[in-house]
Known about the structure:
This protein is mainly α.
Amino acid sequence: MKLDDYVASRKKIDPKFAQEFEEGYTQFKLGVLLRRTRKEAGLTQQQVAEKLNTKKSAISRIENDAENIRLHTLRKYVTALGKKLEISITG
């Protein structure tokens, strides 16, 4: 069984799994997006850390564990990359 098939079938029978999967996947996607955007900007984690007056380990946590990132921190991170943060709500 492929992973996608397993996840789809599991979501159908387990609403809690479906919710937790979607929340975790969203956090994962945010971290990947932040990392990719940083790399596209040609910056290392160390360089972003210096721009934000923090440590490289803090940048690593932002990119690898976006679960608890504050909006203020996210805005500062994105600004350090020379980008603008836009947020939308979809239904």
